[in-house]
């Protein structure tokens, strides 16, 4: 089993991760699972999109898009 060095970095605690566990991301999720401390890549979900939609005002686009009429074009098949 590999080990890692724990040290103080400013007001935080840091862990030097061995090369064999090198991550290719700038940010990780961290949580406890029993007596384990787990680091993992953030999961890609649509939660941020749903939160953004939920924050839209109730009257957003209440009057529609107000688009112009579509152009007449010749078919080119």
Automatic annotation (TrEMBL):
The keyword Protease does not apply. SUPFAM superfamilies: AbrB/MazE/MraZ-like. PROSITE patterns: SPOVT_ABRB. InterPro entries: Anti_VapB2-like, SpoVT-AbrB_dom, SpoVT-AbrB_sf, VapB_TA_antitoxins. Signal peptide: none annotated. It comes from the Bacteria. Keywords: DNA-binding. Pfam families: MazE_antitoxin. Residues 4-44 form the SpoVT-AbrB domain. Belongs to the VapB family. This is Type II toxin-antitoxin system VapB family antitoxin. The gene is vapB.
């Amino acid at each position: 089993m590999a080990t890692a060095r724990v040290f103080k970095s400013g007001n935080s605690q840091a862990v030097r991760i061995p090369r064999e566990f090198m991550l290719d991301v700038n940010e990780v999720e961290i949580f406890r699972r029993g007596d384990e401390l787990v680091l993992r890549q953030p999961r890609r979900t649509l939660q941020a999109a749903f939160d953004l939609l939920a924050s839209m005002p109730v009257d957003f686009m209440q009057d529609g898009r107000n688009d112009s009429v579509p152009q007449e074009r010749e078919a080119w098949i």
